[in-house]
């Protein structure tokens, strides 16, 4: 738990479940790329994950967490969730769908849970960093602890 930091949906859920995590903060003037966030926080961009929301041909939504320095392979991603194809949702659709804005989308605390896939390299690290639900907030936590909060699968979904 982190004390003295403004709470987000994600951190409130982690606190409620007594899950250990760290918050890393930076100036929240503008949304940065995942690589820029990693550099700003002196972190390995392979360990800083971005949260991407997609829609499949079936009109089902899916969440993918991938390393900051990678691009989502839409064909691999579609295959892993059993879709013919998927595409990124439009930025304007993110807030009404998830409750989060671009640059602050966390896999924890979305308005509704969507099938989530984390790139398999996450297994290589003791902890991951990902959005804490607000621009300028990164949660660092153990992947096994994340599994106590959301269901997900591991797969190779990057180019």
What does this structure look like?
By secondary structure, the chain is of the alpha/beta class. The protein has a single domain, classed as YbaK/aminoacyl-tRNA synthetase-associated domain (YbaK protein, Alpha-Beta Complex), CATH 3.90.960. It is 21% helix and 26% strand. It contains five helices and eight strands, in the order αβαββαβαβββαβ. Strand 2 (49-56) and strand 3 (61-67) form a beta hairpin. It is globular.
Write the layout of secondary structure elements.
Blueprint (H helix, E strand, L loop, with lengths): L8 H8 L5 E4 L8 H7 L8 E8 L4 E7 L6 H7 L5 E3 L2 H8 L16 E5 L7 E5 L5 E6 H4 L6 E3 L4
Parallel strand pairs: 3-5, 5-8
Antiparallel strand pairs: 1-7, 2-3, 2-4, 6-7
What's the SSE pattern?
Answer: HEHEEHEHEEEHE
What is the overall pLDDT average? Answer: 93
Helix content: 10-25%
Oligomer: single chain
Based on DSSP secondary structure assignment, what is the total number of beta strands? 8
CATH architecture classification:
Alpha-Beta Complex
Distance between the termini: 35 Å
> Which fold name fills CATH's third level, the topology?
YbaK protein
Level-1 CATH class name: Alpha Beta
Full CATH superfamily name: YbaK/aminoacyl-tRNA synthetase-associated domain
Largest sheet: 5 strands, mixed
Count up the domains. Answer: 1
What structural class is derived from the secondary structure elements?
alpha/beta
Instruction: Order the strands across the largest sheet as they lie in space.
Output: 4-2-3-5-8
Gross geometry: globular
Low-confidence stretches: none
Radius of gyration of CA atoms, rounded to a whole number: 15 Å
Q: What share of residues are in beta strands?
A: 25-35%
Instruction: State the helix count.
Output: 5
